[in-house]
């Protein structure tokens, strides 16, 4: 079975590319899935020889861009990119040496650095509040940036596959820095807060015959009624099922579908050998809809994480009808696996499915016992 290992450039820089990629190859992995475009984060690195806590540079890319290809929005270039090269170039050289593939794990529209500087291209709540953490798939400038960025590295680097994370609309709650809610945001309210009403979206939906402004007012009034007029949160669930809201949601999703189609076209135009992968799910327990037209634009699908063999069987059953090659996923870190116990069983369970491979998270975040257990299981 093929196996990809997610990793970050700061870990490769700390260990040394040759040493780190050699370790990954020796452990039985067949690909290194580098975060090529990534968001902010605070990370504990239990095995790093350089640091044990790291703050990532928000919304940055890990390759040297060709800025001629970009429009109004230009990328934030990570400080690891310098005159001597960049992490993507260094990694591709080492993966060739060790006989592995380089997979570009690419965070798409989740970019708070851009959102803060260009709030007009972000998702907006029904109250008009910009959601910095998520750019709008409908906004032409956000689309232009993403298409340029993905096409840029696809055309200039030796990448075997591109895994596209967050290419569409994100939820409202996302664990933002010091995220503080003094009101109860249950699943229904979160859904309403996550319906985007960027002016571009409102005007586009209106042109398509949907009264988007009326919908915006209804959503805002419902949230306000729950927060300030004592109405039960169940009215949020009822509104979500309203045909008018459903129609607007379908229009929004159509923007994500068209962007996914354009992303696939840009990648294949740059290099027809690159495999396009979409995350069919991410978190444990997240439902998979293999009929989603966004997934139809991919060559291969990623299953979403599982932490027990029964969850693996559930994922596998969902993908039997997908009609595409698919990959299992495993978070070999806490809280899924605070120790190495059970990791070998998970690898064996994924091998018992029709998955073509397994993507494991994450090289720098897992402990030495967990890394060793995976290596032993993969080499069986």
Please tell me about this protein's structure.
This protein has 14 helices and 14 strands. With about 375 residues, it is α/β, with parallel strands linked by helices. The strands form 3 sheets. It has an 8-stranded parallel barrel with strand order 1-2-7-10-11-12-13-14, surrounded by 6 helices. It has a two-stranded antiparallel sheet with strand order 3-4. Helix 11 links the parallel strand 11 and strand 12.
Descriptive terms for the model:
globular, 380 residues
Q: Give the overall average pLDDT.
A: 96
Number of strands: 14
Class based on secondary structure composition and strand pairing = alpha/beta
Oligomeric state of this protein: single chain
Strand order of the biggest β-sheet: 1-2-7-10-11-12-13-14
Question: What's the end-to-end separation, in Å?
Answer: 11 Å
Helicity level = 40-55%
How much of the residues is beta strand, in percent? Answer: 15-25%
Low-pLDDT runs of 5+ residues are: none
Task: Please give a quick description of this structure.
The chain has 380 residues and is of the alpha/beta class. The protein contains 14 helices and 14 strands. Helix 5 packs parallel to helix 10 and helix 13 packs parallel to helix 14.
